[in-house]
Amino acid sequence: GVKKIDVEMLLTVLDEERENMEHRLRAACLSHYPVDYALAIYVYTLPEPAVFQLINGLLRSPDRMNKGGISPALKACLPFIKFLDVALASLPKSFRFEGEAFRGVKWVYPSPDDHDV
Predict the structure, then answer these.
(1) Overall average pLDDT of the 55-84 stretch
(2) CA 82 from chain center: how many Å?
(3) Would the CA dihedral through 21, 24, 26, 28 be positive or negative?
(4) For residues 10 and 3, what is the distance between their CA atoms, to the nearest angstrom?
(5) Cα–Cα dist 99/77, whole Å
(6) Radius of gyration over alpha carbons of the chain, in Å?
(7) What angle do CA 57, 63, 64 make, to 5 degrees?
(8) Which residues, 6+ apart, have CB-to-CB distance to 34 below 8 Å?
(9) Helices (H), the chain
(10) What integer is the mean pLDDT of 99-111?
(11) Which of these, 52, 56, 57, 50, lies nearest to 10 by C-alpha position?
(12) Could you tell me how far CA 61 lies from the centroid of its own chain?
């Protein structure tokens, strides 16, 4: 089944984080970067509510296509996906990374200091 997001929790997080994000953007000399863009990126990376899990699951789902179009669940997420894409594309060049990245990769050795790379 499709994972659901607790919308009340999400709205609370956004409301609580807005002022902090504005401060962080000013401190990083990024006051020109829209706070809503920063919040979209922030929300996407949160472990709870797990927006990234919902969206990634829908994008990978074999049911994402529905009678020649996209599924209603994925269609409902498209405005956020498009907004997130614009937010990421609008980041200053120094914040962009092109290459392979991994999320949630567990250590395969006891600690970062005790490995033989």
Answers:
(1) 88
(2) 12
(3) negative
(4) 14
(5) 25
(6) 17
(7) 65
(8) 87, 90
(9) 7-27, 35-45, 51-60, 72-89
(10) 69
(11) 50
(12) 18
Q: In this structure, which amino acid lies at residue 93?
A: K
**Nearest in space to 77 (alpha carbons), one of 96, 97, 60, 101:** 60
Q: Where are the beta strands (DSSP E) in the chain?
A: 65-66, 69-70
* Single-letter code of the amino acid located at 109: Y
Question: What is the identity of the amino acid at 33?
Answer: Y
Joined together, the tokens standing for residue 84 give: 């997130």
d(CA 55, CA 44): 9
Question: What percent of the chain stands above pLDDT 90?
Answer: 38
